[in-house]
């Protein structure tokens, strides 16, 4: 049986009992946990506690979860798992668009949340692998026109300029870049990037792809890099 992943988790929810319940389940899973109850405290705690995963409620006093995520993304690449009591799809899309990686809608199973967090912790982190010495790009670099995706160092460059991607964005781009001209469905991308047992709306892939395109200056209607295959999914282009 594989060893469960370890890491630091910050739980932010203004419902004190729920926050403590979630924290208890995470601690039983062998994780280090801190708890906060409002948005302003959350941003400060991300700086001080440097969590691997931020479990973030959308509706918070002070500044809400959307603004917390927006601010956190200016200085941290921690995974962000949103908690929301709202069924409005717009709220979820907005949360993902400002840098959240995934979401869980209340009410939820604490065991499911722990499983989602553990899946996030299993993903590669920037800096886990060192780039190959003596080379501008690692031996694992993938080149698509002016786009260079460095698998080892988890860096992306476009026309020689660095492109800042979140972990989820990098993993999605790597999946496509490593399989040029192969069409990958949303389900395949979910299983490759999130988890084979992940359940939820597969269209969150579309939101993250949209963010990648924006950062690459890639137009969906005339893409150089990521092509939409209607009714199926996505494939990597030639960069031209």
Automatic annotation (TrEMBL):
| SMART domains reported in the protein's UniProt record | REC, Trans_reg_C
Cited Gene3D superfamilies: 3.40.50.2300, 6.10.250.690, Winged helix-like DNA-binding domain superfamily/Winged helix DNA-binding domain
Establish whether keyword Hydrolase is in the entry: no
Q: Look up the DNA-binding region in the UniProt entry and give its residue ranges.
A: 139-238
SUPFAM superfamilies in the record:
C-terminal effector domain of the bipartite response regulators (SSF46894), CheY-like (SSF52172)
- Residue numbers carrying 4-aspartylphosphate: 57
In this protein, which residues make up the domain named OmpR/PhoB-type?
Answer: 139-238
Q: Keywords in alphabetical order, please.
A: DNA-binding, Phosphoprotein, Transcription, Transcription regulation
UniProt keyword DNA-binding present: yes
Q: Which PROSITE patterns match?
A: OMPR_PHOB, RESPONSE_REGULATORY
Pfam families registered for this protein in UniProt: Response_reg, Trans_reg_C
Ranges for domain Response regulatory: 8-121
Q: Which domain of life is it from?
A: Bacteria
Q: Tell me the protein's name.
A: Response regulator transcription factor
The scientific name of the source species is Kocuria atrinae
